[in-house]
Design goal:
about 200 residues, alpha/beta, Rossmann fold, seven-stranded mixed beta sheet, about 35% helix, about 20% strand, globular, binds 5-O-phosphono-beta-D-ribofuranosylamine, transferase, phosphoribosylglycinamide formyltransferase activity, purine biosynthesis
Length: about 200
Amino acid sequence: FQIVVLVSGFGSNLQALIEASRASSSVFSIQAVISNRNDAYALERAQAANIPTFVITATAGQTRENYDQILSQHLKSFNPDLIVMAGFMRILSASFTEQWHHKLINIHPSLLPKYPGLNTHQRAIEAGDDRHGISVHYVNAEVDGGTIIAQADLAIESNDTPQKIAQRVHQLEHQLLPKVVMAIARGEICYSKAD
Ligand code: GRF
């Protein structure tokens, strides 16, 4: 079972996937890492793990559809069983998500359907929520709107800041994302048309 990981930044979730893929119990491997930014630290993590990396930056005036077509061509060349968006900070066009919907998952730092989009920790604090968390979901054309596969939650403390929450959120993500990928690789979670 082969996956491609899409990244834009620090790549701590990529690192968790690299480690899980190398565990003796692992049932998946990482074929390639694709970043839309050439300065993503995630690329260094992939290179250190001898995983092929590709950078596809958007050019000025390029349409979203055009970028997504180029991304799609790269993905097709790998014929992956699963594409994991691990901090990939681009919105994908409907034609892209329709093409890959059964093979495309994302990790998002909120308890969806609460707080799609950005600044989720700040928004949860401002709303006075006492629970917050993360979601792994299939990706459709609606931003952070596809079927939820798994979630994990944590308590928001009275003195919490977005930065403090981000640390705990990352710990949860590093556990949950590899678990979900393993479960999909083992066939324990299957995409259904309703997703
Ligand atoms: C994670 O918090 C993820 O939920 C969000 O972007 C962040 C990526 O972090 N989509 P990292 O690059 O994996 O460290």
